[in-house]
Amino acid sequence: MTFRIQQAGSEHLDQLAPLFDEYRQFYGQQADPERARGFIAARMAESSSLLFIATDQQGLGLGFAQIYPSFSSIAARPIFILNDLYVTQYARCVGVGKALLAQVKACARDRGIAVIKLETAVDNTRAQALYQAQGFVREQGFFSYHLDIQ
């Protein structure tokens, strides 16, 4: 399968929105195409995240990565939080995820980013294997907490 990775802009919204909706469903959310589209459109309008999209030769969206720039107080340097990485089911196992990660890493190097952080579900062993094969190291010394506000 031939595909292309590029930084996504507003012209990619129609390709990204259904992928983002699939991604949310993968993590147990109800299908909500309008919410998915609105969320991605807001990230683009606010420039609050960087999005990369993988497309096939016909321009069909195959997957995406969404990064949130942040900072590490300890390192006193900027970091990336790779919040979302998704490859649609029919495009898995052909290197799309690996290529998206390579693009994220290249972008981080170009911008002087200290670290790329990510989280994945404990049972998402396919993603864990991909991350580890690409040099990501599973943290051992920290617990992750969250507090639901709404």
Protein described:
- The radius of gyration is 15 Å and the shape is globular.
- Strands 1-2-3-4-5 form a five-stranded mixed β-sheet, with helices on both faces.
- A hairpin with a 4-residue loop joins β3 and β4.
- The longest helix has 15 residues.
- 35% of the residues lie in helices and 25% in strands.
- With 150 residues, it is of the alpha+beta class.
- α1 packs across α2.
Architecture blueprint of SSEs:
Layout: E1 3-7, H1 13-26, H2 33-46, E2 50-56, E3 61-72, E4 77-87, H3 96-110, E5 116-118, H4 125-133
Parallel strand pairs: 4-5
Antiparallel strand pairs: 1-2, 2-3, 3-4
Helix pairs in contact: 1-2
Tags for this entry?
150 residues, 5-stranded mixed beta sheet, 5 strands, 25% strand, globular
Low-confidence stretches: none
Structural class: alpha+beta
**Radius of gyration, taken over Cα atoms and rounded to an integer in Å:** 15 Å
Strand order of the largest sheet: 1-2-3-4-5
Mean pLDDT over the residues: 94
Please provide the ordered H/E string of secondary-structure elements: EHHEEEHEH
- Strand fraction: 25-35%
What's the short version?
Helix content is 35%, strand content 25%.
